[in-house]
Amino acid sequence: MRVLVFGENGQVATSLRKRAGDIDVICLGRDQADLGAPDMLRAAIEATDADVIINAAAYTAVDKAETDSDQAEQVNHLAVGTMARAAAKRGIPFLHISTDYVFPGDGDQPWQPDDETGALGVYGATKRRGEEAIEMAGGVYAVLRTSWVVSSTGNNFVKTMLRLGADRDVLTIIDDQTGGPTAADDIADALLTMARAYADGRKDSGIYHFSGAPDCTWAGFAAEIFDQAGITCEITPIPTTDYPTPAARPLNSRLDCSTLETDFGIKRPDWRKSLVTIVKDLT
Ligand SMILES: NC(=O)C1=CN([C@@H]2O[C@H](COP(=O)(O)OP(=O)(O)OC[C@H]3O[C@@H](n4cnc5c(N)ncnc54)[C@H](OP(=O)(O)O)[C@@H]3O)[C@@H](O)[C@H]2O)C=CC1
Ligand SMILES: Cc1cn([C@H]2C[C@H](O)[C@@H](COP(=O)(O)OP(=O)(O)O[C@H]3O[C@@H](C)C(=O)[C@@H](O)[C@H]3O)O2)c(=O)[nH]c1=O
Ligand SMILES: [Mg+2]
């Protein structure tokens, strides 16, 4: 089985190669497939002999997107539509990754895949338009919404905490945003399981949720990171209102992941176990 991946150096693309096993995973970097160049995307899909396509490339700089919205729109929406239409034309199933930031974050109930969206910022809004473009393309697809992605490569909260925690005696960390930290390796495993089902003939399309368990706040996440890394750094829990950022973030990022288990047998992984490997790699 062969999988064509858009994205090469990101957290999830790196994990897809690492976790491929006997699956032939071919990653296209910016030089081979720039998401700003629709012709390159169409040409790559027209030429591929892959059984499944996964898009692991995205504009993920949440705050920067507020002032760089044209670029975020191109990468997270327009390019995704181009890929999905080209995949539909070839009859190749298209797997895509989206985010908890498509939701407004009110309430305290886990979001269901068919709940009404309402992004608070440009990043989330462009990611939602990308999902809609896939739904409209008419092919076989699955969108996997995940949250709080961490790994031993790329930029993420674990790396930031290991860096800041080593330097400071005290850190103020948001304690009223709740969600599920998710290891890129676990996302890769989920996507490869899904890819296998589609390569084996699955025809049902849909949006699914996938995040690590248990849900926690960023302060709770930081505490576990410091604990595992043996870092002594006091955490002062703060409300979001004390941490102003260009983009607003959802307070409630809990994702109900049950349909992924029903349809694909994929359970929520314990992020604390996946974190052990990441902390080991980074320390
Ligand atoms: N990070 C997170 O916390 C979360 C991420 N997600 C989603 O998961 C998916 C994977 O995210 P993650 O692996 O963390 O992302 P990263 O930011 O680690 O990687 C994004 C990748 O996209 C590539 N990319 C960006 N712009 C372009 C472009 N114009 N042309 C080609 N490639 C481009 C980057 O390439 P280069 O290396 O060359 O810059 C990079 O390899 C994304 O869809 C994201 O929205 C969902 C929830 C949380
Ligand atoms: C560095 C730092 C961050 N924080 C907070 C800010 C923020 O709410 C939270 C996490 O910081 P980040 O910069 O990692 O947040 P952010 O980049 O918004 O993370 C998001 O990225 C996109 C791509 C997604 O799709 C989301 O699921 C989510 O993972 O921690 C503190 O409270 N104190 C600190 O010292
Ligand atoms: Mg970030």
TrEMBL record:
CDD domains: dTDP_HR_like_SDR_e. The keyword NADP applies. Keywords: NADP, Oxidoreductase. It catalyses: dTDP-beta-L-rhamnose + NADP(+) = dTDP-4-dehydro-beta-L-rhamnose + NADPH + H(+). The keyword NADP applies. Pathway: Carbohydrate biosynthesis; dTDP-L-rhamnose biosynthesis. It comes from the Bacteria. GO terms for molecular function: dTDP-4-dehydrorhamnose reductase activity. InterPro entries: dTDP_dehydrorham_reduct, NAD(P)-bd_dom_sf, RmlD-like-bd. GO terms for biological process: dTDP-rhamnose biosynthetic process. Binds 1 Mg(2+) ion per monomer. Its EC number is 1.1.1.133. Its cofactor is Mg(2+). Pfam families: RmlD_sub_bind. Residues 1-282 form the RmlD-like substrate binding domain. Catalyzes the reduction of dTDP-6-deoxy-L-lyxo-4-hexulose to yield dTDP-L-rhamnose. NCBIfam families: rmlD (TIGR01214). Belongs to the dTDP-4-dehydrorhamnose reductase family. This is dTDP-4-dehydrorhamnose reductase.
